[in-house]
Amino acid sequence: MAKTYRHLWPQVVAWENLCLAYRKCRRRKRSKPDAVRFDFAWESELLRLQRELVTGSYAPGPYHHFLIHDPKQRLISAAPFRDRVVHHAVVNVLEPLFERRFIHDSYACRRGKDKTPLRPSRGGLKFLGFVLWPEGRRLQQGALVRFNQRLRRWRQLKKQGLLTGRAVARSLQAWRAHAGHANAFAIQRRLCNRLLETPPSPA
Questions:
Q1: Phi first, then psi: what are they for 143, rounded to 5°?
Q2: Which of 61, 81, 192, 199 is deepest in the core (most CB within 10 A)?
């Protein structure tokens, strides 16, 4: 029979828990516009969020939808920063309760476990655009080929005035955030230098 837990909501909306949720949500997101706005007056924002949660007037905001294309096109739906704070606040309370009831071989979305158990391979393990090795990880060759093709297209469009430097910077920042999880600093620098070169004129 499933176990029932009571009186959890006061723990979720407690000030200490909301502060912890805010700090977790802020990791690696502090430069995002909605995070910067929240961070500017975070105490006031948290107090307002706490009041809405306690009174029942809280309502989630609209999601931000965007496409990513590496390695294939996917639609990403991102919740507003303040909603992600609420998500973390709920997880802070519920995760310890559920974690101890999971079987050992349950892997998805669990702290300290990957999506699936990883087994060693002579040629490395291909996973999410990387090749994993015991000593580190590198980008898959296919990902590098696709990014080289994208670089050539960016340089031509930029030369023709069809692409702004800001648009290039946004796309490049997204790719570098992905590549930053691999041992690929030299590759990142070489590819970024190529972007700064003047593309050859078409014959």
A1: -65, -40
A2: 81
pTM of full prediction above 0.90: no
List pLDDT tens digits, range 28-82.
Answer: 777 888 888 999 899 999 999 999 999 999 999 999 998 888 677 888 898 999 9
How buried is residue 38: exposed, middle or buried, by Cβ count under 10 Å (0-12/13-18/19+)? buried
Q: Which residue is it, tokens 């009174």?
A: 55
- Evaluate the omega torsion of the peptide bond into residue 202 and state whether it is cis, within 30 degrees of 0: no
